[in-house]
Amino acid sequence: MSRSGANLALLMLGGFRSLVDAATIELANRGYDDVRPLHDFALRAVAAGADSASELGRRMSVTKQAAARTVATLEERGYVVRTPDPADARRMRIEVSDRGFAVLQEGEGIFDDLRTQWQQRIGPEKLAELESLLTELVGPQPVRFDTPGWLARDLGEST
Amino acid sequence: MSRSGANLALLMLGGFRSLVDAATIELANRGYDDVRPLHDFALRAVAAGADSASELGRRMSVTKQAAARTVATLEERGYVVRTPDPADARRMRIEVSDRGFAVLQEGEGIFDDLRTQWQQRIGPEKLAELESLLTELVGPQPVRFDTPGWLARDLGEST
DNA sequence: CCGATTAGACAACATTGTTGTCCATCACAA
DNA sequence: TTGTGATGGACAACAATGTTGTCTAATCGG
Question: Given CB atoms, is A118 within the 8 Å cutoff of chain B?
């Protein structure tokens, strides 16, 4: 019947976007209107140990140039700090700033809230089932997102 | 536990990407190496009645300029045909070409095949359950994808 | 017939990505 | 110790999409 494969894909896209868009808007409401999910994810990678642009690029599966630009943006906006690595003059060590940690925490909370909302809509067991199935299908660590463009786009927050 | 809201979002992104990437690659294998999911979706919209650039823009929630460029690309590659509208000299009527229909059909088939693969991995009931839950959460018609950028990106098909 | 709306096109620019190139620095081995 | 190769970072040029703004031509409404 209507359960075409394309529809299944669109369903997942819709789910993802609905969460991410809501999170981005809420983040903007809380004063972080210059972060996109891309930045959030990059920040997470930095916090998780990607302390150089090249390393960040590897973890996010983008070129080091792209990663470097993301880092530059994050630095401009005060979410990370770059300091020369005393042990290796080639490297610039990247660290998440206080503001960076703050936005990460907010992000966590927002996503968790959204998940809770979903839980209330379909029930804890069903949500767990959903997560379990998705995990089985796409693997437990779907962190590998070489996602360009749209994650970073603006949402219609104003107007 | 580890089931954070962010993870849930990533899971869905992973699922979507895994389907779409596979489909894009397979489409390229079958000779349509110049179509991205973006084009496929735009083509669908045209086939569904969006017969002008402006209308396509409205349906895909992008500006008419962006839509016009997509149409131009599709025309260049032979997936749509533009003809002057006899009833309105301002408009160019857009129609899906034979090749366009062909790629749409291939796309359908590929997505269905992928869905079948998933079905084999987790079983028909569970897949149905997954679809049912997603539909409940995001609505039956998640077609509204104002998705920029990355859908249109190149995948690493060669090398 | 005239003003408002609409379709399409063009230009300028923002975002994010890619390749290619270059230089400085480090690691390692001869 | 020194030479060679790998690595980090930066710059430039370009591709793909998107946005706004502006303009012209055609249609529509009164």
Answer: yes
Nearest protein residue to the C1' atom of D17, measured from CA: B149
Strands A92-96 and B80-84, sheet pairing: unpaired
What local confidence, expressed as pLDDT, does residue A159 receive?
A: 25
Q: Which domain holds residue A62?
A: 16-154
The verdict on residue B128 lying in a domain is yes
Beta strand ranges found along chain B (DSSP E): 80-84, 92-96
| CATH number for the domain harbouring residue B50 | 1.10.10.10
Residue B92, in any domain of the structure = yes
A window 98-117: Cβ near strand C (< 7 A) = none
Q: pTM of the prediction?
A: 0.77
Tens of pLDDT, residue by residue over B9-35, are: 878 877 887 787 788 778 888 888 888
Residue B96 in this model has a pLDDT that exceeds 90: yes
In a domain, A3, yes or no: no
Residue with tokens 């569904």: B48
Residue B4 lies in a domain: no
A152 pLDDT higher than 50: no
Beta bridge pairs of residue A96: A80
Query: Which residues have a Cβ under 8 Å from the Cβ of A52 and sit 6 or more positions away?
Result: A85, A91, A92, A93, A94
Element (H, E) at A94: strand A92-96
Instruction: From the CA of A133 to the C1' of D4: give the distance in Å.
Output: 51
Q: In chain A, how many domains are there? A: 1
CA distances from A135 to A70, A76, A148 (A): 29, 36, 23
CB A77 within 8 A of CB A34: yes
Question: Is the model's pLDDT at B147 over the cut of 90?
Answer: no
Q: Is A66 helix (H, G, I), strand (E, B) or coil?
A: helix
Rounded CA separation B118/B130 (Å): 11
Is the per-residue pLDDT at B145 higher than 80?
no
